[in-house]
Design a protein that fits this description.
Strand order of the largest sheet: 2-1-3
Number of strands: 3
Number of domains: 3
Helix content: 40-55%
Largest sheet: 3 strands, antiparallel
Length: about 190
């Protein structure tokens, strides 16, 4: 996903229960579980395709507050308030010499080089990431459904028509979500 805002999606019996901010999704999950504690609900982080869990104790506001709590800032060297974290990098002396001679110094030059590489590799990297996220979601939410293996093969082969055909019999909400997650995997160029 291109945004830093987390989006979660909850499913119950193959139907989408809720999609949106983590707090809102888990409040909907909490409401369903209060009516039927034995029901099975899966909540996914749309950015990773992984299932997520949350502490649902207390009021709806308590649940939202726990999920909205910012992660503790990194400590140590760097600029933690900006999210800059110091880590070790090992380079040859000639590399350090070149970095040190760049405008702004080694840190600025390294950040610029990383950003340029990310932009240059954005297409293939975006496709690879979409494939992994979609397959992770499908394996958990639909791994036992007919067509899962064919869908996974089509996904990694970049065959959107084969993917759509393989998931055609899935419940509408699962099919729509898998298609949404997979969309970047099928972009050309």
């Amino acid at each position: 996903m291109a945004t830093d805002e987390r989006i979660y999606t909850a499913f119950h019996d193959g139907s989408r229960l809720a999609r949106g901010a983590p707090g809102d999704v888990f409040v909907a999950v909490k409401a369903l579980l209060s009516r039927d504690a034995a029901t099975r609900v899966l909540v996914f982080d749309d950015a990773t395709g992984r299932t997520v869990d949350a502490d649902l104790r207390g009021s709806d506001d308590d649940v939202r507050a726990r999920l909205a709590a910012p992660e503790p800032p990194a400590r140590g060297p760097g600029r933690p308030k900006l999210g800059v974290v110091a880590r070790e990098v090992t380079l040859l002396p000639r590399h350090w010499d070149w970095l040190g001679a760049q405008p702004g110094g080694a840190s600025v030059a390294l950040r610029r080089l990383v950003e340029e590489a990310r932009r240059a590799d954005s297409g293939p990297e975006e496709r690879r990431r979409a494939q992994e996220v979609t397959d992770r979601f499908m394996a958990t939410a639909a791994g036992d459904r007919p067509g899962y293996e064919a869908a996974a093969r089509a996904l990694y082969a970049g065959q959107s028509e084969g993917f759509a055909a393989a998931i055609a019999a899935w419940p509408n909400d699962l099919r729509e979500h898998a298609t949404h997650l997979a969309e970047p995997a099928f972009r050309s160029g």
